[in-house]
Design goal:
The protein has 255 residues and is an alpha/beta fold. It has five helices and 16 strands. 16% of the residues lie in helices and 33% in strands. The structure holds flavin-adenine dinucleotide and FE2/S2 (inorganic) cluster (FES).
C-alpha cells in the first residue's frame, strides 16, 4: 500500500470531553484506501520537544467527503499542541501506516473490546465489519461516565456493552469483568486499549479457545521501521510494531 506524506486541512474539530477531541482532515488528492488498525504519524509543529511525529489510529474514513478522522487524547506536549489546532489549520501526516485487523470467517460471533482511548480504531473496524456482512458486539470500558465517548456511534454498529471502573454507568469494573464474556460464546475478539487490559483479554481468549487480535500502542520513533524503538517479542523474534503491526494475533505474541 502506497504511503503518503501530505499536508491535510482540518475541516472539522470536535471536543468530546475535557481531554479528548476529534480532528477531521481532508486533502486535495483523492484519499488512498485505508484499513481499520492502520495509523498515521502526525508532525507536531512549533516545538523542539516534539521533534518526533506522534502516531494515531485512523478513527473513521469518509471516502464520499474525501476526509478521515483522528481521535486524540491529550497525554503530553505533542497532543496538547495538537489540541490547540482549529478548523482551517493544516497538519502534516505520513499515512496510511502499519497492518490492519483481519476479516473474520463467515458466521463467526465477534466482539470488539476497547478501553479508554483504545477505542480509537474500533469504530472504523466496526463499520468495516458491518459493510462486509458481519454484526459485531462491542464492549467498551471507561474510568467513569464522564469519559464515555461516541456511545451512540457504536450503537449504529452493533450491540454495545459498557463498563466503568466506578460503576457510574454500565457494569462496574474492567471490561474483563463484564458478564457478557461469561454469557455469550465469541469466536473472535478484536481488542485495543492499555496493555494490561489487552493482556487480560488475551489470557481470557487463550483459556476459552477464542481467536484474538490486539492493536499494540508501543512507543514509536519513526513509524516506518527505521529506528527499531517499537519492537515487540513474538514467536518469530523481535518485530517492529510500526511495520509488522500494530495489529498482532495473540498466538504470535510472547505474552
Ligand atoms: C499505533 C498507535 C496508535 C495510537 N493511536 C492513538 C489514538 O488513536 N488516539 C490517541 O489519543 N493516542 C493514540 N496513541 C498514543 C499516542 O501516540 C500518544 O499518546 C502520543 O504520542 C503522546 O504524545 P505526547 O507528545 O502528547 O505525549 P508525550 O509527552 O510523548 O508522552 C506523555 C505520556 O504519554 C505516554 N505515551 C506516549 N506515547 C504513548 C503510547 N504510544 N502508548 C502509551 N503511552 C504513551 C508517555 O510515556 C508519557 O507518560 C497511539 C499510539 C500508537 C503507537
Ligand atoms: S517506530 Fe521506528 S521502527 Fe517502529
Amino acid at each position: 500500500m502506497t504511503k503518503r506524506i501530505e499536508s491535510l486541512k482540518i475541516v472539522d474539530k470536535q471536543q468530546l470531553n475535557k481531554d479528548v477531541f476529534i480532528l477531521e482532515v481532508s486533502g486535495r488528492e483523492k484519499l488512498p484506501e485505508m484499513l481499520p488498525g492502520q495509523f498515521v504519524e502526525v508532525k507536531v509543529e512549533g516545538s523542539p520537544d516534539t521533534f518526533l511525529r506522534r502516531p494515531f489510529s485512523i478513527h473513521q474514513v469518509n471516502y464520499g467527503q474525501n476526509s478521515f478522522r483522528l481521535l486524540i487524547q491529550v497525554a503530553g506536549k505533542g497532543t496538547e499542541t495538537l489540541s490547540r489546532l482549529v478548523k482551517g489549520d493544516h497538519i502534516n501526516l505520513i499515512y496510511p501506516l502499519g497492518n490492519s485487523f483481519s476479516l473474520p470467517l463467515n458466521a463467526e460471533k465477534l466482539l470488539l473490546v476497547g478501553g479508554g482511548c483504545g477505542v480509537a480504531p474500533l469504530l472504523f473496524l466496526g463499520n468495516h465489519l458491518r459493510a462486509n456482512g458481519h454484526l459485531p458486539d462491542i464492549l467498551l470500558g471507561f474510568r467513569d461516565s464522564e469519559r464515555i465517548i461516541e456511545y451512540d456511534d457504536y450503537l449504529k454498529t452493533g450491540r454495545v456493552f459498557l463498563t466503568t471502573e466506578d460503576g457510574s454507568r454500565g457494569e462496574k469494573g474492567f471490561v474483563t469483568d463484564h458478564s457478557v464474556l461469561k454469557s455469550a460464546k465469541y469466536d473472535r475478539i478484536y481488542c485495543c486499549g492499555p496493555e494490561p487490559m489487552m493482556r487480560e483479554v488475551a489470557a481470557f481468549c487463550r483459556e476459552n479457545g477464542i481467536e484474538c487480535e490486539v492493536s499494540l500502542e508501543n512507543l514509536m520513533g519513526c513509524g516506518i521501521g527505521a529506528c527499531l524503538c517499537c519492537t515487540v517479542l513474538t514467536v518469530r523474534g523481535n518485530l517492529c510494531t510500526c511495520t509488522d503491526g500494530p495489529v498482532f494475533n495473540i498466538n504470535d505474541l510472547k505474552w
